[in-house]
Amino acid sequence: MVALIVLNYNDYDTTSDFIEKIRGYSNIPKIIIVDNHSTDDSYERLSALASDKIDVVRTTANKGYASGNNFGIRYALEHYHPEYVIVSNPDVEFESAAVEKLYEQATQLENLGVIACRMNCLSGVALESAWKLPTYTDHLLGNFPILEKLFRFRTTYTEQELSDELVE
Q1: Do 132 and 153 form a contact (C-beta atoms < 8 A)?
Q2: Nearest Cα to 3, choosing from 76, 57, 103, 70?
Q3: Would you say 106 and 112 are in contact if contact means Cβ atoms under 8 Å apart?
Q4: How far apart (Å, rounded) are the C-alpha atoms in residues 89 and 8?
């Protein structure tokens, strides 16, 4: 079973549009909308989307992006025990086939922690979809903005490295 976590903060329109696009995907049986303690009426409005497939929950305080997503993941694990969890921003688009492909890859790989797909921007702007785990040296270089710019290649993948269907 797959559960999808989507974080909302003061952006009902974007989040509800996203949910309308994916709610019919049969390979995502559970969607958890986490309202990250919005200061507008987002939570109340999003609550109208609740159904057997969609839960709408709210954090008690906005402690940032990671905390809000972790709240949703814990909720999904406690209530639905999914095999896989998808964390998605509400301002993206993807097809059901992308979820299917990720699921197929995930079930075939041993010792998998995280899997992600390559992002393509509709405007044609190249987006970084993945980063290498930084080393101690990378962290040191990160403290010096000029050096960080010069050695940025150390933590980003090249186009050639990302050209394979599956990149470890």
Answers
A1: no
A2: 76
A3: yes
A4: 8
- CB neighbours of residue 107 within 10 Å: 10
Residue 8 · residue 42 · CB < 8 Å: yes
Q: What is the C-alpha separation between 83 and 72, in angstroms, rounded?
A: 15
Does position 154 have pLDDT exceeding 70, yes or no?
A: no
Q: Determine the residue type at 15.
A: T
Cα separation of 7 and 35, whole Å? 6
DSSP string, the chain: -EEEEEEESS-HHHHHHHHHHHTT-TT--EEEEEE---SSSHHHHHHTT-SSSEEEEE-SS---HHHHHHHHHHHHHHHH--SEEEEE-TT----HHHHHHHHHHHHHSTT-----PPP--TT-------BPPP-HHHHHHHTSHHHHHHTGGGTB--TTTT-SSS--
CB atoms within 10 A of CB 94: 17
74-103 tens-digit pLDDT: 999 999 999 999 999 999 999 999 999 999
